[in-house]
Amino acid sequence: MKIATAAYPLDWLDSWVQYEDKLAHWVSEAAGQGADLLVFPEYGAMELSTLAGPAVAADLEGSIRAVSERMEEAATVHLQLAAEHGVHILGASAPVDPGAGRPVNRAELYTPAGGRDHQDKQIMTRFEREDWDIAPGGPLKLFDTALGRIGVLICYDSEFPLLGRALSEADILLVPSCTEALAGYSRVRIGAMARALENQCVTAMSSLVGDNDWSEAVDRNTGMGGIFGPPDKGFPGTGILAEGQLNRPGWTYAEVDLSAIAHVRADGGVLNRSHWVEQDGRVGSVTNSCLRAKAPLN
Fold first, then answer.
1. pTM here?
2. How far apart are the C-alpha atoms of 270 and 22, rounded to whole Å?
3. Which of 27, 71, 256, 264 could be cross-linked to 81 through a Cys-Cys bond (beta carbons 3.0 to 4.6 Å apart)?
């Protein structure tokens, strides 16, 4: 298959049609390059808050409500585009009101046959929990699709090895991200590459890019698209299948062969995924050793 992962800039929207046209352009461009799986970034749906006007878009709580109210309409657009172009799409994530408690950070996966399911973010960043009050959502899911088994680790989730291990049966892990600074982008990128190493799979990272002075939540964004695998048999020695240019909007593409994933898991130069369990008997056996220099005797 061919994966397309986005470095996606937000726009100020004056009409719903403008949003539909933007998505149609992005999806048709990737599909025109032969992409089968399209990955949009974390909080890419925040541009929908602009449809409610400047005051709402600039307000943290108001922007949550405005975006959440539009997500069913957005789902309809994504399903139409997935069917029209014969592609799978991970839509940009959004704060969504689940109907009880605080909003969650949710990304939806759409299939060409009309399938639809979602993944909620598991662990919130400091901004999400301290300023925005976004809550952890439902459990991790493994999506069985025509393209293979797909898991989703939304941004910060990719930095936690046990979350990645819970999805060790996935062939592909999607990592939609939204990071303000280069340090944040680097953390998620390192997490995505580490998860590809540990699970001997492919990870696809998308990023929000560009500045948006109309929003307090997504005002500054740094990143680029990247697709990674284990640095082992059948994959590049760097583990990098493809990467974009920092802060340059557009798609990044890579061809992915599921048989290469199966082969490296069965007969790689190393077998990280199979040997994972050998940690269990060793992490509890740490002993202290004092190597401080002793004071000289007088």
1. 0.95
2. 44
3. 27
